[in-house]
Amino acid sequence: MDEKEAENYALAGKILQKVVQKAKKSIEPGQKLLEIAQNIEKSIEELGKELGAPKKGAKPAFPVNLSINENAAHYTPDFEDETALKESDVIKVDVGVHIDGYIADTAFTLNFDNKHAKMIEAAEEALSNALALAKEGASVGKIGAEIEKTIKAKGFNPIQNLSGHGLKRWEQHAPPSIPNNERKDERKLEDGNAYAIEPFATNGEGWVRESQQAGIFALEEPRQVRNQYAREVLGFIAEEYQTLPFAERWLQEKLEMSDFQRKIALRELLKSGCIRAFPVLREAPGKIVAQAEKSILFHKGKITEIC
Fold first, then answer.
1. Is 94 a catalytic residue?
2. pTM
3. Each residue's pLDDT tens digit, 165-181
4. Arithmetic mean of pLDDT, 109-133
5. Which whole-number Å values give the CA distances from 82 to 32, 42, 101, in the listed order?
6. Which residue among 198, 248, 268, 283 is the active-site one?
7. Per the residue annotation, which of 89, 165, 268, 299 is the catalytic one?
């Protein structure tokens, strides 16, 4: 990793810190999820300009995830979403910023009636303890064991099939996976890399399943497609987002295309394997999930928490 790459990671993290500070102050019960997502995504570009982002600017590294209660990840509202945040909801706010493909990724959990404060505390304490172990040469298995130990000591379960991950240019989820439970995984954290550590705590069984709902997609493999709208969408995705995740509502906002044409295009691109979907991931009905996440950078023997 050269100095410019390290600077891009650091700037993405600096912007993301400000975005999160603003979001925590502005999110409140009664707001629609769509409004929350749009406000956060807009603030990324605005704060990027204020904090000296380069010409291409700061952009969302993925659609803001606003996963409520048993929804653990990958929920982002569409333009027709009328869901309003309730005081009793447990909302996970997962946000990423990229500078020219270099990503900072973080998440926090809010619960306004504080009925699930202990679960949120379990996820946050697990993150803190994991970060304390995150030194060059530390094994990802050891980090996972500490996360599991911390969450279980609080009376909850870690979600075993969700994990932290590496961060590479234009790749949000890069190797290695950093587990949230004990595993015999001796892979090491290495200098010259960025990582996101991401504990999830739950009062459920600790396992999420894919739902039928998906509003987030990413470029998988560009291929020839017959439908003209599919070709237009594919070209736009490759140019605007490269391999980073995008939301269907972003296409709706930026492309002059009817809803029917856009949906036909996405269906064609999914069928052909050009793009893949990220289904909403859910715990068992009625269960609750809390999340905490921060990104760190290892550069020239120094470890920096970038957001």
1. yes
2. 0.96
3. 999 999 999 999 999 99
4. 98
5. 6, 19, 32
6. 198
7. 165
